[in-house]
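Wait, mind explaining this?

_____
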Amino acid sequence: MKHLFRGGSDPEQPTLLLLHGTGGNEEDLLPLAKMLSPESGMLSVRGDVLENGMPRFFRRLVAVGYSNGANIAATVVFSTAKNLMDHGFSFCITR
């Protein structure tokens, strides 16, 4: 996997994991990371799945359900996000 690592100037600061959006690359979020935490290290990776020639991290998955199937699909989506948040991940959901 193609990636960039830039060590930070303060080892007490966290290393930021940078994940670009569809069609982006490992350099896209470096300026934002520098603004958010100038002294942090940065690990930025390029998605290794191509969709219409654009890099991304995974193939799109759409959960479809009817009646109880919809309940199961929603539970899987929301419990996965909650489990990740319980382990220190945070999300910014955009439209």
